[in-house]
Design brief:
The chain has about 200 residues and is of the alpha+beta class. Helix content is about 20%, strand content about 35%. It has a single domain, classed as 3-Layer(aba) Sandwich (Protein Transport Mog1p, Chain A). It has four helices and nine strands, in the order ααββββαββββαβ. A seven-stranded antiparallel beta sheet has the order 2-3-4-8-7-6-5. A hairpin with a 2-residue loop joins β5 and β6. The longest helix has 19 residues. The protein starts with a helix and ends in an 8-residue tail after the last strand.
Length: about 200
C-alpha cells in the first residue's frame, strides 16, 4: 500500500498543508483495509476539471497487484460544490480529463503518447435523492500493466438539501459486476454526515 500512498501524495502536491486548513475529511466510509488519500481540486494534473473542493479516495487491498482480486479496485467521492445535477456526459467528459491527465504525469516513457481515454455512461435510476449511473472506461494503465485496460464503473450521486449540491461516489474495477471485487466495493459508502451546513 505504501506505493499507492506515495504516488498520490506526489500528485496531491502535499495534502498536509491542505489538511492544516481544514478538519480531517471523511467523505467516504470504509474499513481499515482500504488505503485512503485526499486530493485537492482543482487537480493540477487535470485543470480542465473546473471545480473547487476535494476528492476522497479509497484503494482496495492489492490495488497495485495484477493477480489480486483488488487490482484496480477503488472508489472516490467528489465534494466540489456541484449545484447542477450531473449527467452521463458530465462523467464521460470529466473522467476523460482526469485519466488522460493522470496517466500522462505517471508515464515515464517520454517517447510514448498515451492513448486517449474512452468513456461511456448511462443513467440508471433515481431513488431517495440518489441518482445512479453505470459506465465503462477504456484507459491506459501507466501504473502497472503499461497497457490499455477497461474499467467498469458505478456512480451514486447524492443530493444534499442543506447546501443544494450533488456529491458523486464513483466505484471502479476491471472485473465484471458479479466478481468479488464488487462485493468489496459494496462496503464502501458515502459518510451519512456528508451533507453539512455551509
Amino acid at each position: 500500500m505504501n506505493k499507492i500512498v506515495l504516488i498520490f501524495i506526489l500528485l496531491s502536491c502535499s495534502f498536509y498543508s491542505f489538511g492544516q486548513q481544514k478538519e480531517e475529511i471523511k467523505l467516504i466510509q470504509a474499513d481499515s483495509t482500504w488505503a485512503k488519500e485526499i486530493i485537492e481540486i482543482p487537480f493540477w494534473f487535470a485543470p480542465e476539471i473546473n471545480y473547487n473542493g476535494h476528492e476522497d479516495i479509497r484503494f482496495a487491498k492489492g490495488w497495485e497487484k495484477i493477480d489480486s482480486p483488488g487490482f484496480w479496485t477503488y472508489a472516490f467521492a467528489w465534494d466540489i460544490n456541484l449545484k447542477t445535477k450531473p449527467s452521463a456526459k458530465f462523467f464521460e467528459d470529466n473522467l476523460k480529463f482526469y485519466f488522460d491527465g493522470l496517466m500522462k504525469v505517471v508515464n515515464k516513457d517520454t517517447l510514448f503518447t498515451i492513448p486517449k481515454t474512452k468513456a461511456s455512461f448511462v443513467e440508471k435510476k433515481q431513488k431517495n435523492e440518489v441518482s445512479t449511473f453505470t459506465g465503462t472506461l477504456e484507459i491506459y494503465d501507466a501504473f502497472t500493466t503499461k497497457k490499455t485496460i477497461i474499467l467498469n464503473v458505478t456512480v451514486e450521486c447524492y443530493y444534499c438539501k442543506k447546501t443544494k449540491t450533488f456529491v458523486p461516489l464513483l466505484k471502479f474495477s476491471p472485473k465484471d459486476f458479479k466478481h468479488e471485487s464488487w462485493e468489496m466495493l459494496k462496503q464502501v459508502k458515502l459518510n451519512p454526515n456528508f451533507c453539512k451546513e455551509e
